[in-house]
Amino acid sequence: MSWTDERIDALRKMWEAGQTASQIAESLGGVSRNAVIGKAHRLGLQSRPSPVKPNDSDTPAPALAKKAAAPVAEPAPRPAPAPAAAPAPTPAPTPISAAPINITTDTSPAAPQPILRSVGPGGFVRQAPGEQQPPITPAPPRRLVPAKPSPEMADKTSLLDLNDKICKWPLGHPGEPDFHFCGEKVNPGFPYCVQHCGHAYQAQLPRRDRRPPPPLPFGGPRVR
């Protein structure tokens, strides 16, 4: 609801008359208490002092004055202490018999507890915690002794002897007892010696000297 000039004048009059914001909102109608307070603040009307002061306490001042004016009652005198009674005679200790005391102990063996078994997947029975055996001590490491080469490989280069400085051209068929490698000095920049480089790297024939591929069956395209 908008604030018209008539409503603003009415707000000023009621505010200066000392009415509360709730009473002004109820008289104007259509506005809330917070709206009345906000409009009064925007109009620059004089602010109201808070009815609750910070120094006020829950006990009213007259009650405090009456309490302060009340006479303080003097404490009553304490009665004199009564005389202490005579101590009672201590009874004589009863003699303890020296007869031996028979203490019976149950030495019968305890009944064996049943062992719970659990079945694993596949039907095997798992061991109970008390049935587990300590791990087996590992065997000491064995000394590896290189095997003697066969007579066929006495002076030949095996797979374990290969390096970057000897020829790696295989001689023989893998699986045969005398299968070995060349072992000669390599041609610089190649993995084989000069002789085996001639076998591994062959010159390509010119295009005119190459044999044409056979024609495709069933009337394939003709090779030119």
Brief summary:
The chain is mostly helical. Among the domains are: 5-43; 153-204, no CATH class.
Explain what you see.
The chain is mostly helical. The protein has helices at residues 5-17, 21-28, 33-43, 61-69, 194-200; strands spanning 170-171, 180-181. The chain contains five helices and two strands. Strands 1-2 form a two-stranded antiparallel ribbon. Among the domains are: 5-43; 153-204, no CATH class. 21% of the residues lie in helices and 2% in strands. The longest helix has 13 residues, at 5-17.
Order of helices and strands: HHHHEEH
Label the structural class: mainly alpha
- Which parts are unreliable, with pLDDT below 50 for 5 consecutive residues or more? none
Mean pLDDT, nearest integer? Answer: 75
| Biggest sheet features | 2 strands, antiparallel
Strand order of the largest sheet: 1-2
User: How many alpha or pi helices?
Assistant: 5
Instruction: Assess the beta-strand content as a share of residues.
Output: under 5%
Taken from the alpha-carbon principal axes, the silhouette is flat
Q: How many DSSP-defined strands?
A: 2
Distance between the termini: 100 Å
Specify Rg, calculated over alpha carbons: 60 Å
Helix proportion of residues, in percent? 10-25%
Q: Which terms summarize this structure?
A:
224 residues; mainly alpha; two-stranded antiparallel sheet; 2% strand; flat
